[in-house]
Amino acid sequence: MKYMLLIYSNPDLQPAYGTPEFQAMMGGYFALNERLKADGVIRGGEGLKGVETATSLRVRAGKAETMDGPFAETKEHLGGYYIVEVPDLDAALRYAAMIPSAHFGTIEVRPLMDYNPAG
Amino acid sequence: MTPAASSAIAVTQALDAVMREDKGRLVSALIVRLKNFELAEDALQEAMASAVAHWSRSGLPASPQGWLLQVAWRKALDRIRRSQTEARTAEALQPFIGAEIGEAPDLISDNRLRLIFTCCHPALDQKSRVALTLRTICGLTTGEVAAAFLDQEATMGQRLSRAKAKIAAARIPYGVPEADALAERLQGVLAVIYLIFNAGYSATPDRTRDFVREAIFLARLVDGLCPGQAEVEGCLALLLLTHARSAARLGPDGTAIALGEQDRSLWDASAMREGLSLLDRAMHRRAPGPYQIKAAIAACHMQDDSSDWPQILALYDSLLRFEPTSVVMLNRAIALAETGALEAALQSLAGLADALADYQPFHAARADLLARAGRTAEALDAYGMAIARAGSQADARLLSRKRDRARSP
User: Fold this and answer.
1) What residue numbers bound the domain in which A69 lies?
2) What is the pLDDT along chain A (119 residues), one digit of tens a residue?
3) Where are the domains of chain B?
4) What fold is seen in the domain B327-409?
5) DSSP per-residue codes, B297-338
6) How many domains does chain A contain in total?
7) Residues forming a β-bridge with A8
8) Subunit contact A89:B173, Cβ cutoff 8 A
9) How far does A115 lie from chain B, in Å, by closest CA?
10) For residue A119, is it within any domain?
11) Contact A89 B169 (CB under 8 A)
């Protein structure tokens, strides 16, 4: 079964660029990527640019409304995701615990629906 | 009475006996193999209906459990075939195809441990874990589970359905966790058992199902199926030692009696012996944990003529390493006062005032210590706060009596 591991974190709590903590976090992500590849479970994943770059859109009465900023006004933002294909939730949770951001943010683990809109 | 009628009664009684003893085991075998709670429960229900008809005609089978499982299994496969379009039937039956198509799950392997880990999975919320365990492993009806939570039956039914739907949709596994996760997940299972125990222990005795008994049954089951785990033994020891005192813990008017003032002849000697020997076995495994420590504290209260407070204080210090909670700090402070360090204990309580502002035992303990320190005005005030938060009439009466005693020492 495929699961998306959604990485939420508060940018204020994230290690700052250039610090040893930032280096350790990046090292952690690098090691995790290698592990996911070696285990043959990775099906996708991307990191997102900061919420200051986000634009939200909705169509109401046939008209597109665009707004500056993310959909939800929360402290923790979606910062990236992985998609892994593993036998069950326990396996997905085990990989989620290896994501460096889990130490200061939250990882939401969601099973994917059975169809793929990208075909 | 006609022979047919008397045989129908005999069959119904036999079926009731089987279901009382083995329902959890039968339904576990089906759920774990079918990976579907509803299907397993419905199929077992159908098999029971068939049993009444068949057994009345041709007598009890050699193994009623085996018969029920065979029939339930076939009914489940029939349901899968009926409910799927032809193209999808093959896919739905795929997990069962191979050596075992058409063969009922065996009775020898007990699948209840695997299902307990599913029901107590941390991806479900705490209340659902307790409810699902009582419903599935203990075989309670939805109505009985609802009564335990003072919920409507329909509300509880929805909660159970949501939990089962999440197990299926998120694919929560039906299995014993791998070795690296086992200890942590066992703590989760024990937490559910302990919650069930406390629900029974604090309940009025007129409840239809005895939750204390269900909790002890579950702890024995886990100990039997997952032997050699010090914390499981510690948890069972804790339940038995606590249960051993139940006849002595309330006065004739329902007032709680403090441990030191209980009539020890009312303690259940055999439950106590079993608890102590389990605790002994657990501690020899040299794998300490919170349940063993709590059981050891219970043992220190019970073994000699009076509680061994210095030892109890040391045990609370160990417990704090596993559970650094305000309630454990409170109990540690009480033990500290009992060793003679009254001032230090009161200081330690002062640090907990915010965290435990609404916790009746905090105010009661603080009142007791203040009275003992001769700070009468403060003690009366604290008794007042405890009485305002008392959970039962009996507790309120006990606190009022203590307040009166503090007023005129």
Assistant:
1) 2-111
2) 999 999 999 988 889 999 999 999 999 999 999 999 999 999 999 999 999 999 999 999 999 999 999 988 888 999 999 999 999 999 999 999 999 999 999 999 999 997 766 65
3) 3-96, 327-409
4) 1.25.40
5) HHHHHHSSSS--HHHHHHHHHHHHHH---HHHHHHHHHHHHH
6) 1
7) A78, A106
8) yes
9) 14
10) no
11) no
